[in-house]
Amino acid sequence: VQLVESGGGLVRPGDSLRLSCVASGFTFFVTPMSWVRQAPGKGLERIASINAGAGGTNYEDAVKGRCIISRDNAKNMVFLEMNRLKVEDTAMYYCVRGLKTLGDRGQGTQVTVSS
Fold this sequence. Notes:
Layout: E1 2-6, E2 9-11, E3 17-24, E4 33-38, E5 44-50, E6 57-59, E7 67-72, E8 77-82, E9 91-97, E10 109-113
């Protein structure tokens, strides 16, 4: 299993980012996927997930209405569009195979929101 995240960066409050994750080593199109994050000094937090197939989605309250998770099964990719970013969104973001917070994940991509 390999998951490679990208798209993070240093942005200002209110900005947007689109995180990407390329997956390999498993049958992607039948696998639910999630994004989790870890803020400095805090534990892992699952913020969004998307089912296989038609791709039903779920969001944690802190990001609901600001983030959109999507997937491209043809490219084995999952995305997280993040809008109206807040300082408290600062964290390392990981793409995770499955719906468990502690599932297989990549090296992460850092998102820093600062004015």
